[in-house]
Design goal:
Number of strands: 0
Shape: globular
Structural class: mainly alpha
């Protein structure tokens, strides 16, 4: 019997086994793209440490961090576009993307006098950062369209291209010994080309039928941006508090521990990426599967860090931090809980829950208040309140998810055509 006969029934519909294989391929592709992006982000400062002096290295690290923060609205845009596309079908989003990119870049340009003084960064570096930020935000529009249309293999390709455009020029500049400004100039150039390539990739996957979907409004974009910003804040607030409250050595040790936290947070991200289009249609089974996969991954990481905590700290920070090995399961547990919160946050945005990020904002403020009031002077003294906050926020998000009434798609709009996960 031929493969086609096995995969397609007499009506031309793909069999369940073919759908599972396509979803598995999509998952592997998205995971590989995520690893590529994280790898390039890690390689940039590692290579810079060998090519730049201390002052330029600090400036580059600060600039990359500034770009990451300024680009957060882009990933909020991606979330909003993906949800809207999954719920209503393709709709023009170019104007919304251009406006979001312009606002993000303009914010950096307007803040240049303050940043030059406060962060001691050259003006040209900040202007190049604005160009890179605008390119990343524009690229996120395409990521949202591909994700919402369940074109996951193309989404993985787009994620890889964005990572290459975002960091490739900087890495080439460092290898060519172009210095801080030269490397960022090359980085801005490759980043600026990325939206063009991604738009062509999306056009080749888009249906040729005219769009009848309602337009994407500013409120949806603001909701997505607020959600992504809240996730960033809640997962970094303890690191900022550590720098303020802990002694220098302990602050450094806590920073190494948060590498484990971020690993546990982003390792199962592929489950959320694949589930989001179905979450937008209130597919509770997909939500349960995404939560189960995410929680299962977290449990495995916690168990692994329990038995190999010393090794984990050695890999993350070197032999100077191996004495913190017993705390590895706690750092991993915080990240695992944030990963579950990330799934629930995406589900809340996808189903139109009112103020989806409110528990994260409230939890961040309460954690900062408690920690500043108690003023812990040890790593464990800060880590335990952080773990408690993660537990409480996870429980609140879980209860609200199961009690909330999701928003429904406009019945006047026809259901979007299901796309193959492997296209």
């Amino acid at each position: 019997m031929s493969r086609r006969t096995n995969d397609v029934d007499g009506s031309g519909t793909r069999s369940p086994s073919a759908g599972v294989r396509a979803l598995g391929t999509a998952g592997l592709a998205v995971t590989a793209a995520g690893l590529l992006g994280n790898g390039l982000a890690y390689l940039a400062p590692v290579l810079a440490a060998r090519q730049l002096d201390s002052a330029e290295l600090s400036a580059l690290a600060t600039t990359l961090g500034l770009i990451a923060i300024a680009s957060v609205p882009g990933f909020g845009l991606q979330l909003a576009v993906a949800v809207h596309h999954a719920r209503h079908g393709p709709t023009p989003t170019r104007r919304a993307a251009l406006l979001t990119a312009a606002l993000c870049a303009s914010a950096l340009v307007l803040a240049t006098p303050l940043l030059v003084k406060g962060l001691r960064l050259p003006v040209e570096v900040l202007l190049l950062s604005a160009v890179t930020t605008a390119a990343i935000v524009l690229s996120c529009r395409t990521l949202g369209e591909l994700q919402g249309g369940q074109r996951f293999v193309r989404l993985a390709i787009a994620m890889g291209l964005l990572a290459a455009g975002r960091y490739g020029g900087v890495l080439v500049g460092l290898l060519l010994d172009a210095g801080l400004t030269g490397s960022l100039l090359l980085g801005a150039g490759t980043a600026a080309l990325t939206p063009v390539g991604l738009a062509a990739l999306a056009r080749s996957a888009a249906p040729r039928t005219p769009s009848t979907a309602p337009p994407l409004d500013a409120g949806q974009i603001l909701t997505g941006c607020a959600a992504m910003l809240a996730m960033l804040v809640v997962s970094y607030v303890d690191l900022f508090l550590a720098r303020q409250l802990l002694p220098v050595d302990d602050s450094g040790g806590y920073a190494v521990g948060t590498v484990l936290t971020k690993g546990a947070l982003w390792a199962p991200q592929v489950a959320t990426v694949l589930a989001l289009p179905r979450l937008a249609r209130d597919d509770r089974f997909s939500r349960a599967v995404a939560l189960a996969v995410t929680a299962g991954c977290g449990v495995l990481l916690i168990l692994g860090s329990t038995f190999a905590g010393t090794l984990a700290f050695q890999l993350a920070g070197g032999p100077d931090y191996t004495h913190l090995g017993p705390l590895a399961p706690l750092f991993a547990a915080v990240g695992a809980l944030w990963a579950v919160v990330f799934v629930l946050l995406n589900a809340a945005v996808a189903t139109g829950v009112r103020w989806p990020a409110a528990p994260l904002w409230v939890g961040s403020v309460l954690l900062a208040t408690v920690v500043l009031w108690t003023a812990p002077r040890t790593i464990a003294g800060l880590l335990w309140p952080t773990l408690g906050a993660a537990v409480v926020i996870t429980l609140v998000m879980t209860l609200r998810t199961w009690r909330s009434t999701p928003a429904r798609a406009d019945p006047r709009v026809p259901a979007p055509r299901r796309a193959s996960a492997g296209s």
